[in-house]
Amino acid sequence: MAAPLQLTRTHRVLIGLVVFGAVIIAGIGFAGSYAAVRELALKKGFGNFSYVFPIGIDAGICVLLALDLLLTWIRIPFPLLRQTAWLLTAATIAFNGAAAWPDPLGVGMHGVIPILFVVSVEAARHAIGRIADITADKHMEGVRLTRWLLSPVPTFLLWRRMKLWELRSYEQVIKLEQERLVYRARLRSRFGRAWRRKAPVESLMPLRLARYGVPLAQTGPAGLAA
């Protein structure tokens, strides 16, 4: 298992600044939307309940997002929490936008702060998820974007192999792929263009096993000696 991530004093200061800023963004957004949502609720016949309705929505968003971050941290995420929180956030934006309708600029202004808050929480969730996976030695590296662009089909097959057989290291997968291509080149050089039909089963078996994540370094020598 990988060693726990050690936070320096600088890390703690930055985390404190980020949390402080996120709280300010959330507070401004919630305070700004309260009046608009309350007035809309009054118009829709909510009566006295309209005074607590905006608070209930905003409190629900905070609780759901905090619980989502906590469960992500302890590696038992429940996606419905985040999806529901974003649905409530979208509803809040819609309620605020209705107060400014049909002014498109006013509607857009109501969505700026909630979007900032959403991006901040998503970034925090991403970081927490990565740290939790790395600490538990479960983090799976991604395939480089340039490889997807330059060679999409082979890259998809490589990515599929990573996911199927839990190969977490990108460098390890690239090395396995290089070994596979070198082994194929040797078979082609030895048996010609029709090597798939001419090569014995023993020589082809290492390639088949490589599909399941078995390194050719283990099976290749025996296959070439067949």
From TrEMBL:
Annotated TM spans: 12-37, 49-73, 85-101, 107-124
UniProt keyword list: Membrane, Transmembrane, Transmembrane helix
UniProt cross-references to Pfam families, sorted A to Z: DUF2637
Origin superkingdom: Bacteria
InterPro entries named among the record's database cross-references: DUF2637
Record's protein name: DUF2637 domain-containing protein
Naturally occurring in which organism (per UniProt): Streptomyces rubrogriseus
Lineage: Bacteria, Bacillati, Actinomycetota, Actinomycetes, Kitasatosporales
